[in-house]
Amino acid sequence: MTTRDRADACPGAVQTHLAADGRLARVRVPGGLLTGPQLLALAQAAVDLADGALELTSRGNLQLRGLAEDAPPELARRLHGAGLLPSEPHETARNVVASVLSGRAAGGLVDARPVVRALDAGLVADAGLAALPGRFLVTVDDGRGDVHGLTGDVGLVAVDPDALALTLAGHETGLRAAPADAHRLVLRAAHAFLAEREAQRSRAWRVTELDDGPARVACLVGGSATPSAVPASDPPVGSVDQAGGLVALVGLVPLGRLTTAALDVLVQVTAALGSEVQVTPWRSVAVPDLPDEYVDDVATALHHAGLVFDAASPWAQVTACAGLPGCAKSRADVRADAARAVATGTLPVTGPQHWAGCERRCGRPAGSTDVLAVEDGYRIGAG
């Protein structure tokens, strides 16, 4: 059990964080889906109010950096107008990731999109759930196993076309519900987490930080907790076939930073096709519903704007925290150093690696090797 001595202080779009390069705002995007107008609103806000880029997080959310002290109210106004801030009290609680291209790509047992919409609506309508910590994560997996492997605090995973199973921090509960009702299981589990946290007089941010958390939360919702293996599934990269002859493109975003050039292309594509995009927990962007004749042109434009469509690229293995100059705690400009190592073929290890400027290792994906900045360079594999 982890003991927390303070409440979670994760930034949001209203509750911003003061970094070395200005205010940082984090916009929750349940399920990662953005309509064209929402993407345009975010891109314009990045240019007008922040440093011009959008950052992708490991929970499929978006960050704006370099905001002036007086910018957050204007950002909040724009987000309200775009439907991206339905409830200010709940803004940091809406951490929901969903299977990539669910309802579009082959292999899923259910369409996760309506489940996520119902879950988000239920969450923001429940005043008590505004107390959920900003680190509390919900996953909705359509049966392909991609986000189930992220081991959320509360999860739904499709087990057949008519049922989703409730999981708690990688534990099966034995509870199932039809797709139309599954969101209610999640809301019950979220309340159970808050009730157990209060009973333990804890400030826990995650289910596993409670004493016997999965078992006790499961008991409160009428189930039991059985540890289960959660296999990791490789996220898609490149071209993905959809039904009806349409194609989706999934591009890696190096260091999770969507530049103005990339945003311009994405905005143009969504405007031309009346479509949407999905940001993923693997710092990639999915562009669905492309007619075959558009695929090459869109891929070329996004490639020139910096996105990567090759799963074998070194960028598929490299993540990094903000580093200098954005974070005063960092010992190095880790993003620049990581980019230089990729360009010169001098990455220090093979496989997933996270470049971090200090021991906090912000944004570190599970299973990555640490490339930790120290006073005289980098230490590899620091625990």
From TrEMBL:
Keywords: 4Fe-4S, Heme, Iron, Iron-sulfur, Metal-binding, Oxidoreductase. Residues 23-80, 243-303 form the Nitrite/Sulfite reductase ferredoxin-like domain. The keyword Heme applies. It is an enzyme of class 1 (oxidoreductase). It holds the Pfam family NIR_SIR_ferr. The keyword Heme applies. GO terms for molecular function: precorrin-3B synthase activity. InterPro entries: Cbl_synth_CobG-like, NIR_SIR_4Fe-4S, NiRdtase/SiRdtase_haem-b_fer, Nit/Sulf_reduc_fer-like_dom_sf, NO2/SO3_Rdtase_4Fe4S_sf. Its EC number is 1.14.13.83. Gene3D superfamilies: Sulfite Reductase Hemoprotein, domain 1, Sulfite Reductase Hemoprotein,Domain 2. SUPFAM superfamilies: Nitrite and sulphite reductase 4Fe-4S domain-like, Nitrite/Sulfite reductase N-terminal domain-like. This is Precorrin-3B synthase. It comes from Klenkia sesuvii. The gene is cobG.
